[in-house]
Amino acid sequence: MKNPTVSSKDINKRPAIPMQVLVRKEIASHIRSWRFIILILLIVLTFGASLYVSSMGLKDAVSNMRDPDQSFLYLKLLTITDNSIPPFHVFLNFLAPLLGIALGFDAVNAEYNQGTLTRLLAQPIYRDNLLFAKFLAPLAVVGTLFVALVMLMIGGGLLGTGVRIEPQELVRILGFTLISVLYVAFWLSLSILLSIRFRQPATSALTAIGIWLFFTVFFPILVNLAIRPFLPNPNYISEQEYIGYNELILNLLRLSPSQLYTDATTTLLMPSVRSLGPISMEQMVGAIPSPLSFRESFLMVWPQISGLSAAMMICFAWSYYIFMRREIRS
Amino acid sequence: MKDPIIQLTGLTKRYGKVTAVDQLDLHIYPGEIFGLLGPNGAGKTTSILMMLGLTEPTAGTAYVCGHNATRNPIAVKRKVGYLPDNVGFYPDMTALENLSFIARLNGLTESHAQAAAKDMLHVVGLEREMHKKTGAFSRGMKQRLGLAEVLIKAPEVAILDEPTLGIDPKGVDEFLELIKQLSREHNLTVLLSSHHLHQVQRVCDRVGIFVGGKLLVEGSIESLSQNLQQQKGISTVITLEHAQGDIKRFEEVLKDLSGLRDLRVNGSTIELMTDSDTTAMAVRLLVNNGADIVAVNRNDYQLDDIYNTYFENSITTDTVYEKSNGFFKRYQ
Is the pTM of this model over 0.90? Predict the structure, then answer.
């Protein structure tokens, strides 16, 4: 029999940070899982389909002189469609929550049910390390996936059209990627929260999907129903009041993360979008129909970005709070 | 005497109105194998969780390896290996991967972790299952792998919660032998919780009997059985060759025995209850008086009797309530 103990010299040589080890393990198990392969296939398929449709209509879009964005070929590639299927960023509005939920709904409760959580927490690691690893590993994977996809798109565009990419386009596309990752992060932290709260993975998955459906399908209907009884006849109110009501409805809709995402991505991918609400004629007078600079677009969506990050952080802080002092027993 | 390596003082845990662990005071010294015995729901696991800082005590302190387990759990976990009662592994990873993952979490480098994991799998006899996924492991194999995981961090204290649960008798023998051997070789302190007394009896230096959240007695098994003998007395059954007519005469003789509590004659057998061990004396008296003895049976108090004495009169409604409570909690 060999000596089973390890001398202390071996341990002190180059201590691996537990966090690193945890994240690596999480990434490895995500990549190997069928769930993730299916999700990747889904995303790549929609990406490919929407890219195909947009490249078909690319010639018309670029030669449309009345469109102020016509010179942004690569942004066009991401946004134009012949209405047979929605463009990629609208698709992602549906798929990103699914991605976040699928990667996080069993983050903690599966470990609990497998009996691995007790073992893991009996190791010299901080509890929040585990939580961070559960959060960071899927994000790293998703981030890599998104960056790879848009890089492939840009590379394909360069090869296919030979048109040089504007630095502004690159920044905008990377900004879009970043916001998409942020959006996934929100759903991920929500589903991790649910995975701590509920002991059964099925319960937490269902709850997360329920919340997603609520925000994408029922929330706009609810806002409509809630506002309509109070809305006076548009024919009898001044333009000012009309705009005020419109603004109110939009702001209520912005309580939904998917609305925030739509606002942010539309503004970033379409440089000519200069307002997310209605604009009066006085405001439009004298405006030259030209694209905004990246800085201006970015400033416009800053509230959306901070809203999404805040929602994400609230979910994460909440899960941190309930996980840190929970009794772990198998 | 050496300083205790595990020192629990007034450790209490309440879940609402239910007290799972009640004022537990326990000292365990380096190098000993301590058996925490008790029926299900006695609070063994809860006490263990408090020693590891996995749950906060309502009152009292737990010092393990000189660190407060509630305030400084990381320092404790560095020195303590824990085998939970319901051990599980990542089913899609092999035994070696599972083990080297834990080794790396304990600060070993990749290559050292691999090497250490291989060594440990040899120690626990899983070298042939090294590259099998743990999803296909039997309960006994999982327990062995769990033991390997406890040992891979070279702990000072090993806490094993129901380590023999679900292993076949031969496996239990090997498992306990292994624990004993490792404890002796590496001066490892072992805290073992179980409700199987016969298994624990063989390896433990000292046991504590834990019922309803309270530690009723602690000490070596010999001292426990001596205590019990003093409480209950020793019974001796002497069988004579055949029912001799003068059995009444023997009865008279035995009545003078010191410390006699009870004397019963049943056909050709005589049953004695005495304070201390007087079997030899009784036999001598009988032989001197011409009795033909064919069998003498002295009832030694075994662990079973210890167990029954302490466990029987202490199954309270509390434990039942606690279990059902846990059941509902689980399905929230």
Answer: no
